[in-house]
């Protein structure tokens, strides 16, 4: 399991520890915010809470908001990233329960907590805060395309919810362990909650998205690395625009392509097949070369969570042999991951 990364000053301003709210989720891929916080900020999570009918669990203790408050929780975080970032009406009652128990609410959805009248009224009555982290900073520029100093790595994927954030966090930590000056740059609500800063790329007006990516990773020392969390997929029928803006604006020197072993259809869009790793690498390099002609692919991050250790090794070795590139599962680590790290820094 990954170790927690240090919280930045901005994160400390959020009310914590957290109770993780899983809504009525039955698809683990949509609970990635909860899993991300469990794995990378576990010391800040006291438990989980969910609606009747939810089948996904982080493995943390199931606590009511009142129980969590007694154990020191100060807020309930919506740990779901569903299509469209909706807050269904069925969630309102448990969200109200959290406010009534003395917890603030933290949301990372496109839907704003303060736009829901019962929550807004209850927050006033109980003296609680409604905090939305999926709020881009003001004054974002249109992209300039100017080459910036420093080094950059971007994780790109064959689909959503398959390990781009975990890969970026793991690589940033591995770089630091080797004495490399590196920062993790968050581009989604979960990464922002973990790191304490970032830009929620999918909440930025389209014309300013590449400019937001430029702002996220400014000029730096030539030896410094920004390890940038990828979003979506360049081949995704709904989210490719966010991915392309991030690719152009971040101007990565290196990309690491992320894939979930065995996944064949686009999550939430099963009538679309996933592109192959070869297609994804080629597309990322062709499109990325527009703003960085020196872009290269260092290797592949293969999510083997559904496999046992022996099957995972076999899948990693077979994919590496096919592609002629380092392949590793960052969560499993080991020599394969060391080879991927060295290829990134080469």
TrEMBL record:
<dbReference type="Pfam" id="PF07755">
    <property type="entry name" value="DUF1611"/>
</dbReference>
<dbReference type="Pfam" id="PF17396">
    <property type="entry name" value="DUF1611_N"/>
</dbReference>
<feature type="domain" description="D-glutamate N-acetyltransferase-like N-terminal">
    <location>
        <begin position="45"/>
        <end position="136"/>
    </location>
</feature>
<dbReference type="InterPro" id="IPR027417">
    <property type="entry name" value="P-loop_NTPase"/>
</dbReference>
<dbReference type="InterPro" id="IPR035402">
    <property type="entry name" value="DgcN-like_N"/>
</dbReference>
<dbReference type="InterPro" id="IPR011669">
    <property type="entry name" value="DgcN-like"/>
</dbReference>
<dbReference type="InterPro" id="IPR035086">
    <property type="entry name" value="DgcN-like_C"/>
</dbReference>
<protein>
    <submittedName>
        <fullName>DUF1611 domain-containing protein</fullName>
    </submittedName>
</protein>
<feature type="domain" description="D-glutamate N-acetyltransferase-like C-terminal">
    <location>
        <begin position="142"/>
        <end position="335"/>
    </location>
</feature>
